[in-house]
Each structure stands twice: as C-alpha cells, then as structure tokens.
Amino acid sequence: MRLPLLQDNRSSRGSREATGEISSPVASTPLAGLTVLVVDDEADTRNFLSFMFEDYGAIATAVASVDEALAVFEQTKPDILISDIGLSQQDGYTLIRKLRSLEPEKGGRIPAIALTAYTREEDRLEALSAGFQQHLSKPIDPTKLITVVASLLELPLKVSAS
What we know:
Blueprint (H helix, E strand, L loop, with lengths): L5 H14 L15 E5 L3 H13 L3 E5 L2 H10 L4 E4 L8 H9 L11 E5 L4 H10 L3 E4 L4 H11 L10
Parallel strand pairs: 1-2, 1-3, 3-4, 4-5
Helix pairs in contact: 3-4
C-alpha cells in the first residue's frame, strides 16, 4: 500500500515551515493544521492513522480508550474524531453518545467517523444513529479516509488515487 502525496509532503515540509507558505498550487498537505483525535485499541492502527494524518499535514492525537479520548477532548477540542467501534471496556458508541451529549460550543457537534471492522448494514445504521456522520470499514483505504475527512469538514482537496 502506498500513501498518496507522501514524497511531496516530506520534501515540502521544511520549506513551507520556513516561509509559512505552500509553494505549489496543489497543496501536498491538504489537512494542514487540522487536529484529529484517533481512538483505536490496536496500537498498529493508531500508529498507522497518526502517521497517515500527519503526512497530510494534520496534528494527530491517538488514544486507546473512551476515557483517554474524553480526557484529550477536554484539553484540546479536535476538529474531527476517527473512532473504532469495537474498543475494549467501553465501545465507540459510548464515546460518540458522550460527546453528542455535550453543548455545541464544548464540542458536542464534532464531525465523527466510525472506522470499524463491523461492516454489516445494521452496523452502519447503528453507527449513524449513535451520532457518527460516516461509517467506514477496515481495512481502510487511506485516500478514501482523507477524502471523507475533507468532505465532512468541507475542505478543498486534491488527492490522487494510487
């Protein structure tokens, strides 16, 4: 599997930080400055998603549980939530319901994507009714996930399929 734009992002990162500008008309970091909260109890998935989002310019925080996610959420109001459903102890449905119970100004309306191995139609419907805007199945296509994130946040995006 290849991450699109990976090489362009690495080569432009230093010069962009030095000048504060993006030099090419097609941004290699389409999620620049975006804060993403990733919740998954599998370390490999957390690491992969963090790496992927950071390569697209986002600031990723990855945690393994609902309690950790809520603690991070209190400290920093992320722009988007990416959460597994099948977490140990409390599940992703519990997390999204707790977040949706918050006042809008405290983050109760955070855009949220369920990223899960639960792929049946009833699983998708349950995720959406719990409060997620999108339900994506694992294993995830990185380009699709980035496209869905950009769409939810109404960001301009040019990602080439690879």
